[in-house]
Amino acid sequence: MKFLFLNSNIIETVIFDFDGTLAKLNIDFPYMHRVIDQLISDHKMSTQPLHSGHVLERISETAAILQNQKPEKAKAFRDEAFRRIETIEIEAARQGELFDQTKSLLTELRQRSIRIGIVTRNCARAVQTVFPDIGSFCPVVVSRDDVREVKPHPEHITTALHLLGSLPRTSLMVGDHPLDIETGRNAETFTAGVLSGHFAADDFIKAGADIVLKRAADILSELAPAGDLTVSGGHQPPNSMQDV
Predict the structure, then answer these.
(1) What is the pLDDT of residues 12-34, one digit of tens each?
(2) CATH 3.40.50.1000 describes domain 3-25+97-225
(3) Tens digits of per-residue pLDDT, 65-106?
(4) pTM for the full model?
(5) Domain segments of the chain: what residues?
(6) Looking at CB atoms within 10 Å, which of 4, 5, 130, 173 has the fewest?
């Protein structure tokens, strides 16, 4: 069965962000930043030339600079940096929990024959810690361990869609951060922002979200059965619709 989204667009696949969208991990990002910036300083590097405020990108930028000096230094830095942030993520996951509707949401989508996937900048171990039976509810989970480039680069989504046998023009990316909207737009999917994180509806509208919902589970009410309607190739460009 096919399902209609906004303006009669067909949706066959839904891709979810994890932390803040399906689960609450409470990662202390300011602390993580301090840990990595201290590690950068320990390697006699300055944080001043770094362009990104995101931890993973700061690690990549620093490693690239070190690579030009001495490759083994770059590897040692990257290994230690990821060891430290993984420790923080896993500890947060131990204290975290799934949102109440997560399992029923994933179950309902699969019962409707909608393909589902999860993409996350977190490590796989953190996801497994808070959701040990995730494989029983979602067939495709793409963590940062599975890609070379993390969100907002589209590789997370394109990898998930490839594994699911899905196309961007019939797929929807759902997340609690404007970065998720940017990622979906980069991958040319439809996008939905959810207010279960730390951002307001206006933040998602500015990012170009096609729709903003209170929680991820509300997407169920936005997907109407399309019966035997044939796909006509009428996918509209992302950001062509808003329903807030």
Answers:
(1) 999 999 999 999 998 999 999 99
(2) yes
(3) 888 888 888 999 999 999 999 999 999 999 999 999 999 999
(4) 0.88
(5) 3-25+97-225, 29-95
(6) 4
